[in-house]
């Protein structure tokens, strides 16, 4: 059952997702090349919202949730991201561990150029996968974890729209 | 002697045309040129005056250009990047966020490899490990569970120590073949896997990381590697890049890595490494780059003051969808001569350059150690690499002065700026260093030059450079040039007023005659030289004639003084006659 609070938040969520979906920005200062932003959803300490609430606003099969909980062995996670993007899906990354070198690198690639860059992947020495126009990346994180659990100092700079729920 | 026809009109015209084209084409243009040896047509891109072979098509270059505002800062940085790339010097761009570092590195790569190309990129994080840069061993298995346990084990302190032990053991087996070394590794890794209870892991493969790929990937061609956020990486991890430091401040010809048994990775023709970082004193949570690492890089500190004008350019650019672009400043486009002088072939010339660089280098170090930049976290060890980078740069990039000759003071000033002054962040300090170098050349004064500007046989460095260059020009060209110089001087010769030519007597008559004889002698020497078939001999005669001009000048002065007295007498006499 959708509560009144979530109804209010749902309009915020719709607006946020629409921004992630539609708004582009120049790849950098001094360029006309436009790219999509990555979105960040922060669940505040007393928030009752859940990932399911976010999922509920998407049409069926449009989005997949990937739980990130192991920063020591990131490769399978990165491979799953590639597969989902190849299937033109949106990805909601449920961030439960301090992102390791590989995840930060892929998020930065996606944020800076809308690509994923992998070495020795799918038979290619350098594999660059362009973010499909149908796909977007949204990272979901608890406020407390965001403040205390993430060691990468430019984590917030990776994202365009940020939604606090 | 070199045949140096390019020193004259034809080459000058080509350079002028290139410059005009670059200004018109917003600093970048595509062209094709036939390889004189193979006859093959090759593609090139001219980036702010530097020509580089490209894989991009004309359409690519036009498309890339559409996206570039080319602010003054972009113009300056792209030019310096192009120079460092041509010389294969690893480069560091240190600057505040929004300076456009990352963007320019990417666009530079596109200009060289096509509109869709991207450099290999590493973003430094607090969790970046040496394996993320060099590469790591992975088990060849479909057993995901064991793979996971193995990878997690390698992340532990014990795992890292044991892997290091395997690598260290290989270092002692230099005499073994690559295959033998690989076999040893396989055995050791299997034992290691067993020791942590992984019994099915029997074969491993080495996944080369971005650094080794950048060196020898793409079938030995290599890649451009962009290392972002160097200052976020732990300092011990930054030093994983130490082996890239090669001779003369270039990228090492090869890097050794024992961990996979291969030993040597040769630098490919396309290999280049560029780093980017934020100033640690301005942006939080950044480390300075360790001094041994910093000394291996050509370092450009982007001045904060240059970022705001870029934003202003950008607003015009974006609001008009690229219709208003920044203008290319002519002084930012300097066209190097096609055939630079091989300085090392001329010891006398090399000595003059070496004296200039050495004097600056010593004074710079003295100042840096004593005053330096106390408010800045990033420190440098200024060593011989900077001086060698300067030499490398001026061997390749030489420019024509106003007189049409190669003027090495231009190359030297630019190289000193790139390898010493660009490291600094303080604007006043930079200005002081520029003044210092100008003073060393004999073109100004500097309080930092304690013993005064160096001279050679009473001549300043700038004068001596000019003289040495004249000495190595092709004799026939030198002959023509000297004739031209004499004719220009002859046009300016002061003529004794006719009323004094026959009137004078005594001292005046002698002086007038001496002056007239000297003019005739110059003309005679010039004609003798013109008729002399041996160009070297002719140049000697012409030099003798040129030397006479200074005597002519002093005689002119004396005569004018003497005639001044006569003029007054004649004026007074004329006045008296008028009165009568």
Topology:
The complex is a heterodimer of chains A (165) and B (580).
Chain A (H helix, E strand, L loop, with lengths): L3 H19 L1 E3 L7 E3 L2 E5 L7 H6 L6 E6 L6 H12 L3 E6 L5 H13 L1 E7 L2 E7 L6 E6 H6 L13 E3 L1
Parallel strand pairs in A: 3-8, 3-9, 4-5, 5-8
Antiparallel strand pairs in A: 1-2, 6-7
Chain B lengths: L8 H16 L3 E7 L6 E7 L2 E4 L4 H9 L5 H15 L4 E4 L6 H13 L6 E4 L6 H5 E5 L4 H12 L1 H15 L6 H18 L8 E5 L1 H11 L3 E5 L6 H4 L15 E4 L5 E4 L5 E6 L13 H4 L3 E4 L5 H13 L27 H24 L13 H13 L11 H12 L7 H15 L13 E2 L2 E2 H12 L2 H17 L6 H4 L5 H25 L3 H45 L1
Describe the model.
The complex is a heterodimer of chains A (165) and B (580). Chain A has 165 residues and is an alpha/beta fold. Chain A has helices at 4-22, 51-56, 75-86, 101-113, 143-148, and strands at 24-26, 34-36, 39-43, 63-68, 90-95, 115-121, 124-130, 137-142, 162-164. Chain A contains 5 helices and 9 strands, in the order H-E-E-E-H-E-H-E-H-E-E-E-H-E. A 5-stranded parallel sheet of chain A has the order 4-5-8-3-9, sandwiched between helices. Chain A has a two-stranded antiparallel sheet with strand order 1-2. Chain A is globular. The relative contact order of chain A is 0.23. Chain B is an alpha/beta fold and 580 residues long. Chain B contains 21 helices and 14 strands. Chain B has a 5-stranded parallel sheet with strand order 5-8-11-4-12, with helices on both faces. Chain B has a 3-stranded antiparallel sheet with strand order 1-2-3. A two-stranded antiparallel ribbon of chain B has the order 6-7. Classes of the chains: A alpha/beta (165), B alpha/beta (580).
Keywords, separated by commas or semicolons:
heterodimer; A: 165 residues; 5-stranded parallel sheet; 9 strands; globular; B: 580 residues; 3-stranded antiparallel sheet; 52% helix; elongated; disordered N terminus
């Amino acid at each position: 059952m959708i509560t009144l609070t979530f109804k209010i938040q749902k309009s915020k969520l719709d607006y946020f997702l629409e921004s992630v979906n539609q708004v582009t920005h120049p790849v950098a200062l001094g360029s006309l090349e436009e790219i999509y932003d990555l979105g960040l959803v922060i669940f505040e300490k007393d928030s009752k919202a859940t990932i399911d609430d976010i999922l509920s606003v998407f049409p069926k099969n449009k989005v997949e949730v990937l739980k990130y909980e192991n920063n020591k062995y990131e490769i399978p996670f990165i491979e799953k991201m590639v597969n989902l993007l190849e299937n033109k899906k949106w990805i909601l990354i449920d961030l439960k561990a301090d992102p390791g070198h590989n995840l930060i690198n892929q998020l930065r690639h996606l944020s800076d150029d809308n690509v994923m860059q992998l070495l020795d992947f799918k038979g290619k020495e350098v594999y660059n996968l362009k973010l499909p126009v149908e796909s977007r990346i949204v990272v979901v994180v608890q406020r407390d974890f965001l403040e205390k659990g993430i060691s990468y100092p430019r984590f917030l700079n990776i994202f365009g729209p940020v939604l606090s729920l | 002697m070199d045949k140096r026809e390019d020193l004259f009109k034809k080459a000058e015209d080509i350079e002028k045309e290139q410059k005009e084209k670059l200004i018109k084409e917003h600093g970048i243009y595509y062209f094709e040129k036939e390889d004189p040896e193979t006859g093959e047509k090759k593609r090139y891109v001219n980036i702010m005056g530097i020509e580089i072979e490209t894989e991009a098509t004309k359409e690519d270059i036009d498309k890339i250009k559409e996206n570039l505002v080319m602010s003054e800062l972009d113009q300056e940085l792209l030019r310096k990047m192009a120079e460092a790339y041509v010389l294969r010097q690893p480069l560091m761009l240190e600057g505040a966020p929004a300076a456009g570092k990352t963007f320019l590195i990417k666009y530079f790569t596109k200009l060289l490899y096509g509109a869709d190309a991207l450099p290999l990129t590493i973003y430094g994080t607090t969790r970046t490990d040496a394996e993320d840069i060099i590469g790591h061993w992975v088990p060849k298995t479909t057993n995901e569970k064991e793979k996971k346990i193995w990878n997690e084990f390698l992340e532990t302190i014990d795992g890292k120590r044991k892997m290091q032990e395997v690598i260290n053991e290989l270092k002692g087996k230099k005499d073994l073949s690559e295959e033998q070394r690989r076999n040893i590794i396989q055995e050791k890794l299997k034992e290691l896997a067993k020791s942590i209870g992984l019994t099915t892991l029997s074969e491993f493969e080495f996944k080369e990381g971005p650094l080794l790929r950048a060196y020898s990937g793409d079938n030995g061609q290599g890649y451009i590697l962009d290392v972002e956020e160097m200052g976020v990486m732990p300092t011990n991890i930054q030093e994983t890049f130490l082996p890239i430091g090669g001779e003369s401040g270039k990228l090492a010809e090869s890097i050794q890595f024992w961990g996979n048994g291969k030993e040597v990775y040769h630098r490919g023709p396309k290999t280049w490494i560029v780093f980017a970082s934020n100033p640690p004193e301005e942006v939080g949570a950044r480390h300075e780059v360790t001094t041994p690492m910093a000394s291996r890089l050509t370092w450009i500190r982007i001045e904060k003051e240059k970022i705001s004008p870029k934003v202003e350019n950008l607003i015009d650019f974006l609001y008009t969808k690229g219709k208003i672009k920044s203008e290319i400043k002519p002084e930012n486009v300097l066209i190097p001569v096609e055939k630079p002088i091989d300085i090392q072939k001329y010891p006398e010339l090399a000595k003059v350059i070496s004296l200039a660089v050495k004097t600056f280098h010593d004074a710079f170090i003295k100042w840096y150690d004593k005053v330096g930049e106390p408010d800045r976290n990033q420190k440098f060890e200024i060593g011989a690499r900077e001086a060698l980078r300067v030499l490398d740069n001026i061997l390749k990039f030489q420019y024509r002065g106003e007189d049409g000759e190669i003027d090495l003071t231009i190359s030297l000033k630019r190289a000193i700026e790139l390898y010493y002054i660009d490291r600094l962040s303080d604007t006043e300090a930079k200005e002081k260093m520029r003044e210092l170098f100008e003073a060393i050349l004999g073109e100004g004064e500097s309080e930092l030059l304690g013993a005064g500007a160096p001279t050679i046989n009473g001549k300043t460095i700038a004068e001596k450079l000019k003289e040495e260059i004249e000495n190595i020009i092709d004799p026939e060209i030198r002959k023509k040039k000297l004739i031209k110089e004499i004719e220009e001087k002859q046009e300016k010769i002061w003529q004794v007023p006719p009323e004094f030519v026959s009137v004078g007597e005594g001292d005046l008559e002698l002086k007038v005659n001496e002056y007239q004889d000297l003019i005739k002698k110059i003309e005679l020497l010039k004609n003798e030289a013109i008729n002399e078939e041996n160009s070297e001999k002719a140049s000697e005669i012409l030099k003798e004639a040129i030397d006479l001009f200074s005597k002519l000048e002093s005689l002119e002065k004396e005569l004018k003084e003497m005639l001044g007295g006569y003029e007054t007498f004649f004026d007074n006499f004329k006045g008296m006659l008028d009165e009568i």
